[in-house]
Amino acid sequence: MEIWDLYDENRRLTGETAVRGRPLPRGRYHLIANVLFLNSKGETLLQHRAEEKEIMPGIWSVTGGSALQGEDSAAACVRDTREEMGFTPDMRQARVLRTERREREDGGFFRDVWLVRQDVPPEAMRYQSGEVQGGMWILPEDITKDARLNRDLNELFFWEEAFPYLCLESMRIRIPKGVYRHCKGRRYEVLDLCLHSETMEPMVIYRALYDGGEIWTRPAAMWGETVCLPDGLRKRRFEREEEM
């Protein structure tokens, strides 16, 4: 039996509790925590829910669930990850990516979506029997190219809103600040990355290291593309000087 702490509309603990599966009193909320991981390659971690799960069986999802009595959302992330995936998340490399409040007929909830940067090899994971049947690391943008993954993950309440920020942070790992050389020879400095205000696409903000030092931007997805030069040689569009 799961017991939850209850909160008011301002996310203040009320001192009341509720049992999972029973409707919450009017004006009361419980706490949910989900955790998105990014490794040093910019890949995110998905879990494959067990077929025998009562709710959303067999779909690809992410780690998380309701906080138990006495837990804050960070503690819930640690417990759920240990239980479901068999490793301990490094909360020193964590931050809240998004917070939301939702209303439901059986009771509302607050949700914290955490982002944790951590490398965990697949062989170090131990999946919880009856809960999780597998896991994988994948680049966030590759999820949208897979019809099943895209459909499954959009079953999650928060996915559509959180996904652009996950893509942005993934690109920040893959395109760190520094000096890059364009395939045609000119040098540029990456200043930061941002989201396009209309499309929510990750964009690179960079400065020319020649002439007047103009500031430019381009889609992050184009940054590391391989292009064909006029002489037929294929090179990455931008190469970081430290890696050349």
List the helices and strands and how they pair.
Blueprint: E1 3-7, E2 13-19, E3 29-38, E4 44-49, E5 60-61, E6 63-66, H1 73-85, E7 94-102, E8 108-117, E9 132-138, H2 140-143, H3 147-153, H4 159-174, E10 178-182, E11 187-195, E12 202-208, E13 215-219, H5 220-223, E14 226-228, E15 234-236, E16 238-240
Parallel strand pairs: 3-8
Antiparallel strand pairs: 1-2, 3-6, 4-5, 4-9, 7-8, 10-11, 10-16, 11-12, 12-13, 14-15
Overall description:
By secondary structure, the chain is of the alpha+beta class. The protein folds into two domains: about 5-170, Alpha-Beta Complex (Nucleoside Triphosphate Pyrophosphohydrolase), CATH 3.90.79; about 175-244, DUF1653-like domain (SH3 type barrels, Roll), CATH 2.30.30. About 20% of the residues lie in helices and about 40% in strands. The chain contains five helices and 16 strands. The chain has helices at about 75-85, 140-145, 145-155, 160-175, 220-225; strands at about 5, 15-20, 30-40, 45-50, 60, 65, 95-100, 110-115, 130-140, 180, 185-195, 200-210, 215-220, 225-230, 235, 240. A five-stranded antiparallel sheet has the order 13-12-11-10-16. A four-stranded mixed sheet has the order 6-3-8-7, sandwiched between helices. A hairpin with a 6-residue loop joins β12 (about 200-210) and β13. The longest helix is centred in the C-terminal third of the chain and has 16 residues, at about 160-175.
